Amino acid sequence: MLAILLVVVAGCGNANGNGNGGNSASGGNANTSSQNQSETKKEVTLKVATLIPPMTDILELVKPLLKEDGINLELVVLSDNVQPNDALANKEVDANFFQHVPYMNEYNESKKSNLVGVQPVYHAVYGAYSKRYKTMKEVPDGSTIAIANDATNTGRSLVMLEKAGLIKLKEGVGIKATQADIIENPHNYKFEEVDLLMLARMLDDADLVLMTPAYASPLGLTPKKDALLTETTDSAFAITMVAREDNKDSEPIKKLAERLSGPEVKKFLEENYAEIAIPAFE
């Protein structure tokens, strides 16, 4: 069903084959023990759907570490922010790594699926970027602001603007806010909702674009040095490894979670993505 599959970075071998016939007459407890040990160490393949760096980079980093655990990690790199959840829900992959839990919850509600957040990995700090202005004070009244069109990231964008004192939302709507919940818009901003993957392209057309570092960094932009406005770190939006209810407690998924929250990943983020990704684990 993954017709739009872009890249599959595959390791070697699937562990489902069984090389012995099970009827050996040469027997002996030592041979049986050796055979059992061999079976225990057989490599299993774990397919993980993902999208872009730094998610892909992190998975490539832990791939050889999982090899030591007897797990062949296979990356399934897809082209939009719906396919990874569809693939996981349809059991075409074993896990995915590209989203925060509120986005996953929105998918579960709309598709009646049972995806489960397993391991938060890093905080991707949302920022507001512009090609035309250097500070929020320069952004004129009536400007067009591009925001993500999925429910959770629409709400996330509006909450960030509210916390900055730029708009006011209905009491208690939180990240479920929509444009209809804006009760005060003193600067008469106009909001254009687009797909997450289109946000970076909107920099040429909109006055301000709100997006995560994953989409800003390919343009050479980071929250720390380029954003006119940023959100505070919120654990609810940590980019998280997600599995299904039926496999979240399996040994390979537990090993993947362990490796994704290990010292190697923390060091990698601190050395390579310090300005855009803050580790979400100790």
TrEMBL record:
In which compartments does the protein localize?
A: Membrane
- Keywords annotated in UniProt: Lipoprotein, Membrane, Palmitate, Signal
- An annotated GO cellular component: membrane
Q: Where is the lipid attached (S-diacylglycerol cysteine)?
A: 12
What's its membrane topology?
A: Lipid-anchor
Give the region (Disordered) as residue ranges. 20-42
Low complexity compositional bias: what residue ranges?
A: 26-36
Q: Specify the protein name.
A: Lipoprotein
User: From which source organism is this entry?
Assistant: Fontibacillus panacisegetis
